TrEMBL record:
UniProt-listed Pfam families: Amino_oxidase (PF01593)
Protein name as annotated: Pyridine nucleotide-disulfide oxidoreductase domain-containing protein 2
GO MF terms, alphabetically ordered: oxidoreductase activity
Subunit structure and binding partners: Interacts with COX5B; this interaction may contribute to localize PYROXD2 to the inner face of the inner mitochondrial membrane.
Species the sequence originates in: uncultured Desulfobacterium sp
Annotated coiled-coil segments of the chain: none
InterPro entries: Amino_oxidase, FAD/NAD-bd_sf
Residue intervals of the Amine oxidase domain: 15-282
Length: 402
């Protein structure tokens, strides 16, 4: 039986990060991963000679995440950059609103729709940036502060009161109350919030509005494909003597005297440790790996709570295309920067139309709206491989998908 200080179930980026920090601190750590490769949802596959980021594409916090420097990820092959403009919101009358990480440049684009909104946006962007930098980002990357300190932050400090006020409103209310004249600007800002699956009509998530607006305008692309991020974390984990066992599926978490002491895999191998960390969802962790009998001993109400847990109310539909030419946008005649934008949003006729289409998506319909990104436009490493690029056309792999 193999003994470790910590066993981590799941080799996605969360498991890798936990393992890398523990291993760097001197702990003996093993990561158990069911798939043949670590990385979880941050995957880059190759199809028709092109690298395709099958899930995670936009990295909102690369320049804020302590792990990048703590784990020396740049030395292990991970680098990133932020294409600008961050977003081009295309309208049905062939115009476009471009938003940048530079509020002055954004204001110039907004001024083509409303001069009043240009100045107002800069003011609100600065307010949101302060909320993100002073409250939200620190809470993301440090231990939760003491309850009394949190009460003081939210009830005594003005910035905390503002965050609490936003949290009690819906995203639609927050953006509507900004007082913008341009329906296009309101729709673009609401899209930055709802594109992650946040329902624009629910309360309790208002603090995410400034986070998504500010950080999406500063979002990054990983050079060479998204998978280079978990790959770099994996390398620093291994460099600190961490152990990874892939293609190894967990059967159960071993409980003795009410305490988790180890893990048994479906192949019969057992591992023991002082600490068990699971990065898979709560239902698998508790109902499948621990089991209701063990949970009932700890708390009879706990199994029912876990059974009530659910994923988001809607799923994202993603289509990957390998094309033989770059997309062309009619709105580029209005603003040439449209073609250079990291993200192009289309199919939305305004603020209310976005809210209506979100409701349609929740009900199971597939409204014609969304956004696209041409990764190879910004990162030549993700262009077709040498084989696909230089074979004669009649011998080349499939060059486009309908």
């Amino acid at each position: 039986m193999e003994q470790y200080d910590a066993i981590i179930i799941g080799g996605g980026h969360n498991g890798l990060l936990a393992g890398a920090y523990l291993a760097k601190a001197g702990a003996k750590v093993i990561i158990l991963e069911r798939r043949w490769e670590t990385g979880g949802a941050i995957m880059t596959d190759e199809q028709s000679g092109c690298k395709i980021n099958t899930h995670a594409c936009y990295m909102m916090m690369m320049d804020k995440a302590p792990a990048f420097d703590d784990l020396q990820l740049s030395e292990f092959g991970c680098s990133y950059f932020s294409p600008q403009p961050s977003i081009a919101f295309l309208t049905k009358d062939e115009k476009a609103l471009c938003l940048y990480n530079d509020p002055d440049k954004t204001a110039k684009s907004i001024a083509r729709f409303s001069t009043n909104d240009a100045a107002k946006f800069k003011q609100i962007y600065n307010e949101y940036s302060e909320l993100v930098e002073e409250c939200i980002v620190p809470q993301t990357y440090r231990s939760t502060i003491a309850p009394l300190d949190m009460v003081y932050l939210l009830t005594e400090k003005e910035i905390g009161k503002k965050l609490l006020e936003l949290s009690e409103k819906t995203p639609i209310e927050i953006i509507d109350e900004c007082g913008f004249e341009s329906d296009t600007l309101k729709a673009a800002l609401l899209y930055l919030t709802s594109m992650w699956g946040i329902n624009p009509n629910v309360t309790g998530v208002g603090f995410l509005v400034p986070l998504y607006i500010v950080r999406m305008l500063n979002s990054s692309l990983i050079r060479g494909g998204s998978h280079r991020l978990p790959s770099a974390i994996y390398k620093t984990f291994i460099a600190n003597k961490g152990v990874v066992e892939d293609t190894l599926e967990v059967e159960k978490i071993i409980i003795e005297n009410g305490k988790a002491v180890g893990v048994k895999t479906i192949k019969g191998r057992e591992f023991r440790a002082k600490c068990i960390i699971s990065t898979v969802d709560p239902q698998q962790t508790f109902l499948r790996f621990v089991g209701e009998d063990e949970l009932n001993v700890i708390s009879p109400d706990f199994p029912a709570t876990i059974k009530g847990w659910q994923w988001e109310e809607l799923s994202h539909y993603v289509l990957h295309l390998v094309m033989d030419r770059s997309p062309e946008y009619k709105a580029a005649k209005f603003d040439p920067e449209v073609a250079n934008s990291f993200i192009q949003v289309m199919g939305i006729d305004g603020f209310q139309d976005l809210a209506d289409k979100f409701k349609q998506a929740v009900s199971g319909k597939l409204p014609l709206w969304g956004h696209m990104t041409s990764f190879t436009q910004f990162d030549r490493v993700q262009k077709p491989s040498v084989l696909a690029r230089f074979l004669p056309e009649e011998e080349a792999p499939v060059r486009s998908l309908p």
